[in-house]
Design a protein that fits this description.
The protein is an alpha/beta fold. The chain contains 21 helices and 14 strands. The protein folds into two domains: 138 residues, Annexin V, domain 1; 290 residues, Alpha-Beta Barrel (TIM Barrel), CATH 3.20.20. Keywords: Bacterial microcompartment, Cobalamin, Cobalt, Lyase.
Length: 465
C-alpha cells in the first residue's frame, strides 16, 4: 500500500509501511548509513503527517518484514491480543498519540492495552512525539517485577551494580561490589560482564557472588552476563544461577547473529524458572538491546533502527523478564552520532518498552569516539528519571575499564535519587538500614562507619569472603 502527503508545492509518496516508518523517524546516523532516512526535514515532516493518518488496524495487515521469513514477525502476529487491542482499534497513529497523552489515560489503562499493541504501532506513535511527550507518556507506564526484591514501584528507582574487571579477578569484583553497596546501589542486580567466555570462570563468579550474598543475607539478585548457552551449562553444573542474560534484537537474522533463537530463549527461561531461586517472585530473565544491532549484523531488511529496536521488545516480553535495558550509546556514532541522537534514542526506547509492558532500564552511555560527554549523560539520566525509568547502571567512576565505555556511576544514582526523591527497592532499602549502610530515612552513613559495619576487618577482609 502506498502512502502520501502533499504540501503546497509537492506530494511525497512512500511505497509501503516500512518506508513510511523509516522516513518519519528522527534523524539517525544509522538510518542514513542504511540509505533509508528521509532526504530532508520537509520529507520527514511529510512522512509524519502521512503516518499520523494510518489506522492502527493497518499494522495487523502489513508486516514490515514478511511473516513467512521472520520468526519475530510471526511472534508479534501470533501473540497479538485482540481483546486488549479493542479499546484502541478505531484509532489512527495520530489519535493514539492524543489518547496516550490525555488525562483520561492512566497507568492501569495503558497496562490493559499493552498486549494489544504491536511494536510497529508503538514505534510509529513515538515518531510523532516530542521528547516531553515521550517523558510524560512513559511516566504513566508502571511495570513491576520481582525476584528477591521488587523493582519498578512508584517513587523508586533501582541500580544495576556493574563491577566489571578486565581479568575477572574475583577480589577486584568484590571490592567494586562493596563500593557500590556502600553507595546504596545494587537493588536491580549485581551484573558482571565477564572478560572471558570460559564457563569455568562464569561458574566461579556465580559461586563467589552468591556466597557473598548469602553471607550478608542480601535481598538482591546475581547475574553473569555471559552467552545464554554458557548460563544453561552453568545450570546443568548446579551453579547458583539467579537470572539468565541475553542480548536480543528485533529480527530473526539479527538474533541468529547473536547465536540465539526463540526456542533457545524459551528453553533457558524454563530452566531458570525450574530452579525457583526467587523469594518474592520468579521473573528470572535479563535482556539487553540497543538501536543499530540489526543494521550492524546486516539483518534490518530496510527497517529503520528504532522500529527494529521496538521489535526486540516483543521478543523480551514473551519471557516475563525481571530487567530489560537499552544500552543506548554503546554501539557507536555510526548508529547514534551525537548526544542529540543518543538522548532521543534513550527516551524512545524507554517509552516504547514501557508501553509494551516491559520493565525498562537504560544504560546511559557513550563510546569515546562519539560526539558526547558526561554533561550529556547527566541530561539523559535526569530525563529518564523524570520519565520513571526502572533502573540505571552503577559503574565505578562511570568508566567501565573492561568494556571501555562511559556510563553512569554510583554517585550519579545518588544525585538522581536525591533530586527526584526516589527510593530503592523496598526490601533492599530495609537491608541497607539493617546493615547500617543507611540511616532510618535512607541517607547514607559515613563511608568508614558503613564499611566497618559491613566488613569489620576493612577492605583487607575481602580476601576472606
Amino acid at each position: 500500500m502506498m502512502f502520501s502527503y502533499g504540501t503546497h508545492d509537492r506530494t511525497y509518496r512512500f511505497d509501503d509501511l516500512r518506508t513510511l516508518l523509516a522516513k518519519a523517524s528522527p534523524l539517525r546516523s544509522g538510518d542514513v548509513l542504511a540509505g533509508i532516512a528521509a532526504e530532508s526535514e520537509i520529507e520527514r515532516v511529510a512522512a509524519r503527517y502521512a503516518l499520523a493518518d494510518v489506522p492502527l488496524t493497518h499494522f495487523l495487515n502489513e508486516a514490515v518484514i514478511p511473516y513467512e521469513n521472520d520468526d519475530v514477525t510471526r511472534l508479534i502476529i501470533d501473540t497479538h491480543d485482540d481483546s486488549a487491542f479493542s479499546p484502541v482499534r478505531h484509532l489512527t497513529v495520530g489519535q493514539l498519540r492524543e489518547w496516550i497523552l490525555s488525562d483520561e489515560c492512566d497507568s492501569e489503562t495503558l497496562a490493559n492495552v499493552a498486549r494489544g499493541l504491536t511494536p510497529e504501532m508503538v514505534a510509529a506513535v513515538s515518531k510523532l512525539m516530542r521528547n516531553q511527550d515521550l517523558i510524560l507518556a512513559a511516566g504513566k507506564c508502571r511495570v513491576v517485577t520481582r525476584f528477591r526484591n521488587t523493582i519498578g514501584l512508584p517513587g523508586r528507582m533501582s541500580v544495576r551494580l556493574q563491577p566489571n574487571h578486565p581479568t575477572d579477578n574475583i577480589q577486584g569484583i568484590l571490592a567494586s561490589t562493596i563500593d557500590g553497596l556502600l553507595y546504596g546501589c545494587g537493588d536491580a542486580v549485581i551484573g558482571i560482564n565477564p572478560a572471558s567466555d570460559s564457563i569455568a570462570t562464569t561458574i566461579d563468579l556465580l559461586r563467589a557472588l552468591d556466597h557473598f550474598r548469602q553471607r550478608f543475607n542480601a535481598p538482591l539478585q546475581i547475574c553473569v552476563l555471559t552467552h545464554i548457552t554458557n548460563t544453561m551449562r552453568a545450570i546443568e553444573a548446579e551453579a547458583p544461577v539467579d537470572l539468565v542474560f541475553q542480548s536480543i534484537a528485533g529480527t530473526q537474522k539479527a538474533n541468529e547473529s547473536f547465536g540465539v533463537t526463540l526456542d533457545l530463549l524459551r528453553e533457558a527461561h524454563e530452566a531458570a524458572r525450574s530452579l525457583k531461586r526467587g523469594t518474592v517472585g520468579q521473573n528470572c530473565m535479563y535482556f539487553e538491546t540497543g538501536q543499530g544491532s540489526a543494521l550492524s549484523a546486516d539483518a534490518h531488511f530496510g527497517v529503520d533502527q528504532q522500529t527494529c529496536e521496538a521489535r526486540a521488545y516483543a521478543v523480551a516480553r514473551q519471557y516475563s523478564p525481571l530487567l530489560v535495558n537499552t544500552v543506548v550509546g554503546f554501539i557507536g556514532p555510526e548508529y547514534l552520532f551525537d548526544s542529540k541522537q543518543i538522548i532521543r534514542a534513550g527516551l524512545e526506547d524507554h517509552f516504547c518498552g514501557k508501553l509494551l509492558g516491559l520493565p525498562m532500564g537504560c544504560d546511559v552511555c557513550y563510546t569515546n569516539h562519539a560526539e558526547a560527554d558526561q554533561d550529556d549523560t547527566d541530561t539523559l539520566l535526569t530525563l529518564l528519571g523524570v520519565a520513571g525509568v526502572n533502573f540505571i547502571m552503577g559503574v565505578p567512576g562511570a568508566d567501565d575499564i573492561m568494556l571501555n565505555y562511559q556510563s553512569t556511576s554510583f554517585h550519579d544514582a545518588l544525585y538522581l535519587r536525591k533530586v527526584l526523591g526516589l527510593k530503592r527497592a523496598p526490601e533492599f532499602e530495609l537491608w541497607l538500614h539493617q546493615m547500617e549502610i543507611t540511616d532510618e530515612v535512607g541517607m547514607l552513613m559515613p563511608p568508614q562507619q558503613a564499611l566497618s559495619a559491613l566488613l569489620p576487618g576493612g577492605l583487607l577482609a575481602i580476601g576472606d569472603l
